[in-house]
């Protein structure tokens, strides 16, 4: 685990430094730019789906879905980050008590 | 981009806005600390991620993949892919910040969504630097303090399900994704990516579904024809500036 943590840390720093150091024309290729823009969208959406609907290798629906539902409503109401995240936990925890 | 000096009022307005973002984002580090420990990382590993990786989405991705049972190396790969976003911010910020040498190397560490958002729209080099640095440093200090507190608290909590911490991770990713969903093409990519990831869950090792979903981005990016500028977060896209 430590190796993966440290490698990822070094890699993330180098990605930042590369951005500040490389000439801007690196991104001039429209396909590269489109892919680079879409990668965070795809990864974040996949992470939401996997975090909420899977337990190990199995798919399913549990209290986490209610937490996500709360998050959607809170985001639509333009609530701050912390309210979205803490609220989702509280909703899921309460649902498990019922 | 002008070299004009800022008036004291402009300076204090930039500092005030940047600190507000720093406080709001830093507080969110509590959640990261607790979730990370609940995912199976030690308190020390959790704090090292916030100190050295210092880019929230990648940190959450790393612990999220590990929490789902993925190999640490899959977690690292997902974190790095999400970290490419910061490279784009750097390409945009470099000509605005105009730093070289050690200043550039140091600035790179605090090159994140929030510091980019609070620096990119200023009219002078001094304003860009002030917004970028004040935001970056205040987020850095508070994010790390909050991570440590959250990690220790998370250790006391034990099972992540107790306080619904497992649900917090999905909500955190959704909150990071949200500002990008104003673009209909991004909504399409998000839905496709989520579907691909879920389809892969039962048949692949944990950690692989998320990476497979990255393929959707490559596919749509390659076959898409539309020209558009690089997406850079604006001041309204970051925590503390939702009003």
| Low-pLDDT ranges of chain A | none
Strand content of chain B: under 5%
What is the count of helical runs of chain B?
A: 11
Secondary structure category of chain B: mainly alpha
Helix content of chain B: over 70%
- The ordered string of helix (H) and strand (E) elements of chain A is HHEEHH
Describe the global form of chain A. elongated
Overall tally of structural domains of chain B: 1
> Order of strands across the biggest sheet of chain A?
1-2
Computed Rg of chain B: 19 Å
Whole-number average pLDDT of chain B? 88
Short synopsis of the structure:
Chain A has 98 residues and is mainly α. Chain A has helices spanning 2-21, 30-53, 63-76, 81-97, and strands at residues 54-55, 58-59.
Structure description:
The complex is a heterodimer of chains A (98) and B (243). Chain A is built from four helices and two strands; from the N terminus they run ααββαα. Chain A is mainly α. Chain A has one domain. In chain A, strands 1-2 form a two-stranded antiparallel sheet. Chain A is elongated, with a radius of gyration of 19 Å. The two termini of chain A are 37 Å apart. The model of chain A has no long low-confidence stretch (mean pLDDT 90). Chain B is an all-alpha fold and 243 residues long. Chain B has one domain. Chain B has eleven helices and no strands. In chain B, helix 2 crosses helix 9 and helix 7 packs antiparallel against helix 8. Classes of the chains: A mainly alpha (98), B mainly alpha (243). At the A-B interface, helix 1, helix 2, strand 2, helix 3 and helix 4 of A face helix 1, helix 3, helix 4, helix 5 and helix 6 of B.
């Amino acid at each position: 685990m430590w190796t993966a943590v440290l490698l990822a840390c070094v890699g993330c720093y180098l990605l930042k430094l590369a951005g500040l150091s490389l000439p801007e024309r690196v991104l001039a290729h429209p396909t590269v730019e489109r892919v680079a823009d879409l990668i965070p969208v795809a990864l974040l959406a996949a992470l939401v789906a996997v975090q909420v609907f899977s337990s190990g290798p199995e798919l399913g629906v549990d209290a986490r879905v209610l937490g996500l539902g709360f998050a959607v409503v809170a985001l639509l109401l333009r609530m701050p980050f912390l309210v979205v995240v803490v609220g989702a936990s509280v909703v899921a925890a309460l649902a498990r008590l019922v | 981009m002008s070299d004009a000096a800022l008036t004291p009022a402009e300076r204090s307005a930039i500092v005030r806005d940047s600190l507000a973002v720093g406080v709001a984002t830093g507080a969110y580090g509590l959640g990261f600390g607790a979730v990370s420990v609940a995912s199976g990382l030690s308190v020390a590993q959790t704090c090292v991620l916030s100190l050295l990786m210092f880019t929230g989405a990648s940190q959450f991705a790393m612990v999220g993949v590990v929490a789902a049972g993925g190999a640490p190396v899959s977690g690292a790969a997902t974190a790095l892919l999400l970290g490419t976003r910061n490279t784009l911010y750097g390409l945009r910020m470099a000509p605005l910040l105009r730093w070289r040498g050690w200043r550039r190397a140091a600035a790179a560490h605090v090159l994140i969504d929030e510091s980019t958002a609070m620096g990119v729209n200023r009219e002078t080099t001094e304003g860009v630097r002030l917004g970028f640095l004040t935001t970056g440093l205040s987020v850095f200090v508070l994010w790390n303090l909050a991570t440590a507190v959250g990690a220790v608290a998370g250790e006391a909590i034990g099972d992540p399900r107790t306080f619904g911490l497992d649900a917090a991770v999905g909500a955190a990713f959704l909150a990071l994704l949200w500002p990008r969903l104003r673009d209909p093409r991004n909504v399409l990519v998000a839905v496709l990516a989520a579907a691909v990831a879920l389809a892969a869950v039962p048949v692949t090792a944990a950690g692989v579904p998320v990476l497979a979903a990255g393929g959707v981005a490559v596919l749509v990016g390659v076959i898409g024809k539309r020209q558009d500028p690089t997406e850079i977060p604006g001041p309204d896209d970051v925590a503390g500036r939702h009003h």
